[in-house]
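Continuing the batch. This is chain 6 of the set; chains 1 through 5 are on the previous pages. Same settings as before, nothing changed between runs. Recording input and output for traceability.
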Amino acid sequence: MSQSARPLSPHLQVYRPQITSVLSILHRMSGMVLALGSLFLTWWLAAAAVGGAYFAFTQAVYASWFGTLVLLGFSVALFYHLCNGIRHMFWDIGRGFDLDSVTRTGWTMLVATAALTVGAWAIGLSVGG
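Output for chain 6:
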């Protein structure tokens, strides 16, 4: 028996990522971001319940550049997970499994994620200042 130099399974050096695999990985990552983001939401709600001074501190943290970046990442994850969840619901009823549909709905979902995120932030900035 001679040893083959080939990898035993698709290896990152030879495997070309496809939109389906990338979106699947991103869906799982967005779920983890949402779980972590729920802790920040809980912190914000607890600060509101504790009182004015601590809530003002929490608001200052969220208004900082880092807090804004965290909130932006959370909103991207939220809209990504929402759009991809809708896509998965169509798959659950047996629609859109052909390769063209999977690719088209994947790109559509990414555009919808960007549009919803930009729209929500534009509305939030115009209302909240």
